[in-house]
Amino acid sequence: MEATQTHPNLSDAALEAIANRFKLMGDPTRIKILHQLMGGEKNVTDLVARLGTTQGNISKQLGILAGGGLVSRSRRGLNVFYAIADPSIVTLCETVCANLESHHEQKASSLRRR
Fold first, then answer.
1. Which domains are present in the chain?
2. Handedness of CA 27, 31, 36, 40 (dihedral sign)
3. Residues 80, 63: Cα–Cα separation, whole Å
4. Which of 8-17, 64-73, 77-86, 90-99 has the lowest mean pLDDT?
5. pTM of the model
6. SS3 readout for the chain
7. Which of 47, 62, 70, 95 has the fewest CB neighbours in a 10 Å radius?
8. Sorting pLDDT into bands at 50, 70 and 90, what band is 94?
9. Contacts for 26 with CB less than 8 Å, ≥ 6 apart
């Protein structure tokens, strides 16, 4: 695949920041949490029920996502609600999902032709 756009030279610091952003999304549980939050804000109890994992694991992963600026927290009474803080994450996830779907369709098509 040939690139159609030219990109500016990036500093080592910028490349490190980009790599760190991808690392934040490098855990399946964090991807599942982000996917749930794309449908609107949720609290830990909601996420535990939807994802079937422990409260401790969800809280840990939310802390990592919040620390990286991908999700925001808002307290209402005794509950803390989490939401997507960086809309570019939604775009990135949609792009990756569409690419994977296309890739798998092409692979399945090539297998059927044989």
1. 14-85 (1.10.10.10)
2. positive
3. 12
4. 90-99
5. 0.78
6. CCCCCCCCCCCHHHHHHHHHHHHHCCCHHHHHHHHHHCCCCEEHHHHHHHHCCCHHHHHHHHHHHHHCCCEEEEEECCEEEEEECCCHHHHHHHHHHHHHHHHHHHHHHHHHCC
7. 95
8. confident
9. none
Residue 1 has pLDDT above 50, yes or no: no
Using CA atoms, how far residue 89 sits from 21, 26, 44, 112, in Å, is 10, 13, 20, 34
How far is it, in rounded angstroms, from Cα 56 to Cα 89?
A: 24
Are the C-beta atoms of residues 97 and 90 closer than 8 Å to each other?
A: no
Amino acid identity of residue 50, one-letter, is R
